Amino acid sequence: MKDILYLVIYKKPNVMGNSQVVILPPPMQQMEALQEAIYLLGGKWRIPIINAICNGSHRFTTILNNIPGITRRSLAKELKEMEQNFIITRTVRCDTPLLVEYHTTEYSESFSPIIIALISFGIEHKKKMLYASMPIKKVGTINAAHQSA
Question: DSSP letter at 123?
């Protein structure tokens, strides 16, 4: 049973609307790849940090101020791990005062479609949940006088 080769090929439109062929590895390798991606991008702060940097926040304090709820300690830890995983670069300028800036890498920009898709999904999900929490309005009720007629 292990010798069976799983090969899934499907066409999906890319950003330009053209079809591209996607060849997926066997299910076990797919799961490993998913786990790696989730480890890399997972957590509460990674994607918001990438988004803040992509939107022009390059200094530590600016990033901190643009992400509600994140602590200095959490941001410092995440930035260090993201630098180790080649998601961002850290540039230190020996000016007075010392200037440290963070930028996305070409590698991290390759998953910008994923981040855009997550933002779109989040917006749609919020709308769906807002709609679901709205009280149901009764359009019309039939009273006893009209029922007997």
Answer: H
Q: To the nearest 5 percent, what fractions of the chain are helix, strand and coil?
A: 50, 15, 35
Closest CA to 39 of 73, 88, 87: 87
Question: pLDDT tens digit string along 8-59?
Answer: 555 566 555 666 677 777 888 889 988 998 888 888 999 999 999 999 999 9
Scan for tokens 């799961």, then name that residue. Answer: 31
44-131 CATH pick, 1.10.10.10, 3.80.30.20, 1.10.1740.110, 3.30.70.270: 1.10.10.10
Sequence ranges of the domains in the chain:
1-41, 44-131
CB 107 within 8 A of CB 87: yes
Q: What is the pTM of this model?
A: 0.70
